[in-house]
Specification:
CATH topology of the largest domain in chain A: Phosphoribosyl-aminoimidazole Synthetase, Chain A, domain 2
Strand order of the largest sheet of chain A: 8-10-7-11-9-12-13
CATH architecture of the largest domain in chain A: Alpha-Beta Complex
Structural class of chain A: alpha+beta
Helix content of chain A: 25-40%
Oligomer: homodimer
Radius of gyration of chain A: 21 Å
Order of helices and strands of chain A: HEEEHEHEEEHHEHEHEHEEE
Number of strands of chain A: 13
């Protein structure tokens, strides 16, 4: 895991301690919250215009992505809903081969949220924005009555500039391609479970929420078209992403259980709860499907990055079981890993 | 009011009647809902790739905007939360002088929402998407537990192509400029109030939710730089938007109460509830600040459009009361219309 991004900015002296419905009215209190808080914190040439939207110039290919975040609890070991909402959408853009540039921030706040908690979340967002030169250029704040939301839900949408060298496309995947993951699996999901009400257990785990897209984009810089497909396996875990890939091809994906990188703590927790780690959510992780010719070199490249110390080769694309994901167990048996049929843990992100 | 857009598409035979937490798991049920429902309904070259984001080419200026919609009730006379969430973001883009092109759709669904209601909402979104050639290109679906949301919240973010002739900027507003509105004020707000639990009253009112941006963009086509500023006065109403404008200038905005276009039904309802219509939310309406030279012609142009039959000149930019909005009453008195200090009605959009 890379080092955590930390940013703090003195909270303005608001003359209110909690968010009320009037902060969502569009009137004076909305303006106070925005002018004294959000706009001053995120100040940039686009946002400062305070129009209904941001206007920018571009020539070339852009990527556009959206994600809503409803994680519970909103603060957890290793991060909070603010970190998730930036990292998540920025990672999605990078998975399209794009450098994230602009973010929109849509807040749905439950009446009663403390302004201090809101500020902490906004600070996290600002920290990531600064660290990776991604600007929050437009936004929206709504407030719902107590009991009609859950503290805060955040939507981020993002625009990124697609790298010229990027040639990402599921249709480019061929038999023989290799599957790499950028680090340990199941860390985020098991962290959230460890602090979820009614399920708490003691662990040293911290969420892997981070912007990992920069590393994915460096892979593209170095290996161009040999990086055929990228995806971050969040909700539903590794197995779901691999199923989405296999389901769209006439090929199969075969992975080896023994090769899956996983922290000891996550593995123990999965065993304790009877969960299969390949279905557990990740946040700061990506899966890459790459040409066999460069797979060794690509893996070495990843492992040099402190964010990807756990990176590993986990399997290959084959033609043996079309449209299926097959897991080879440590003792040699094979099983089909289908889509997660039900719900493992709601509101993991 | 223009005619309502109506679109219907047979609902697929889902093997579930209500949305459950598992539909937000990222697993099999999420995929069923998306593959059989959302993806087939909105099918287009961008969405069909089903990647983490949509990739498109552009050369020129783009506008980017976001809005979350939490309106209650989700179905109301004249529309539903789906109409609002398309029209609202598309209008925001048009207010930047941009033709809306791409929309992202983020759904936060409360467990227990009926699939039939969800489908109706999606049909409305699709209808508007088709009518104005705006594509839903990326999306996200989350489900929260019963009592942690309220049926459905929708975030739409949008990208539009800025018109070459557009020269919208608050700094371009000068003394003597004229203020036009595109139609009757307070219609949406009074409609929602008439069906809000605990507040119901009988009225023939229907929400004015509509994409009005096309008309705003035609103004730009016809009058170019003489259209100096555009804004849709949604939450907080006309007075809030005018205050936002005046607050950023060393000028004042003076409007005349007698000139404000308002339906008889809205006026009566406002009197009944003791509300000032200039603070009541609108949806399919815009305010334009225009050069005095073309204001008459611009108004005539608007009035030719059936969506803008109620269009009117309502006041001017003056230097008399810097940073203030002043309302001249029918009997000649003047009062300052400041920002709405509290909350008129939560969750109006």
């Amino acid at each position: 895991m890379g080092k955590k991004i930390s940013f703090s900015c003195p909270m303005p002296e608001f003359d209110f301690d909690t968010i009320t419905l009037a902060h969502g009215s569009g009137g004076l209190l909305t303006n106070k919250l925005l002018d004294q808080g959000v706009f001053s914190l995120f100040s940039n040439e686009y946002l400062d215009r305070q129009h209904d939207g941001a206007v920018f110039y571009n020539e070339g290919k852009l990527a556009f992505s959206t994600d809503s975040f409803v994680v519970s609890p909103i603060f957890f070991p290793g991060g909070n809903i603010g970190d998730l909402s930036m990292n998540g959408t920025m990672n999605d853009l990078a998975m399209c081969g794009a450098v994230p540039k602009f973010i929109s921030l849509g807040l749905i706040i439950e009446e009663g949220l403390s302004v201090r908690e809101l500020w902490k979340i906004l600070e996290s967002i600002k920290g990531i924005s600064d660290a990776f030169d991604v600007q929050v250029v437009t936004g929206d704040t709504k407030v719902v009555e107590r009991g009609k939301g859950d503290k805060i839900f955040i939507n981020t949408s993002g625009i990124g500039v697609v790298k010229k060298q990027a040639n990402i496309g599921i249709e480019r995947i061929k038999e023989g391609d290799r599957i790499l993951v950028s680090g340990n699996i199941a860390t985020h999901g098991m962290t959230i479970m460890s602090v979820r009400k009614g399920l708490e257990f003691q662990t040293a785990l911290e969420s892997d929420t981070q912007y990992i897209g920069d590393t994915a984009l460096e892979l593209i810089d170095n290996f161009g078209s040999d990086i055929k497909f990228l995806r971050d396996p969040t909700r539903g875990g590794l197995a779901t992403v691999l199923n989405e890939i296999a389901g769209k091809l006439e090929l199969s994906i075969e992975i080896e259980e023994a090769l899956l990188p996983i922290l000891h703590e996550s593995k123990s927790a999965c065993e304790l709860l009877g969960l299969d780690p390949i279905y557990v959510a990740n946040e700061g992780l990506f899966v890459a499907v790459v040409s066999p010719e460069i797979s060794g070199e690509a893996l070495d490249f990843l492992k040099q990055n402190e964010k990807c110390e756990g990176a590993a080769f986990i399997g290959s694309v084959t033609s043996a079981y079309p449209k299926k994901v097959v897991v080879k167990s440590a003792i040699g048996g094979r099983r089909i890993a289908s889509m997660l049929p039900g719900e493992q843990l709601p509101r993991i992100c």
